[in-house]
Amino acid sequence: MASKRILKKNVNYLFGDLIDECYLWMLVNPEKDDKKATAIVDEAVEFYDDVMEKVNSKDLDNAKKYFGLLNREVEDKAKELVVKINTL
Q1: How many structural domains comprise the chain?
Q2: Which residues of the chain have pLDDT under 70?
Q3: What gap in Å lies between CA 76 and CA 71, rounded to an integer?
């Protein structure tokens, strides 16, 4: 159970930081169009909701493998969002 709790915390901090970066970019660049940043925030929130639903899943055959794959999925999505934020 400890790994589930840690995964939830990591996802929360990670996606919270990514969303904060988008909002910070919008504040620092008020003259630029913020539609792309808003789209990134929406994508991050949607993915966060999906991941939390998967983490709270009760029917698991191999929990260790499941959470390992889920952790990898979170890392990949976070890298993708960082690239999108960097291209703003």
Answers
A1: 1
A2: 1-2
A3: 9
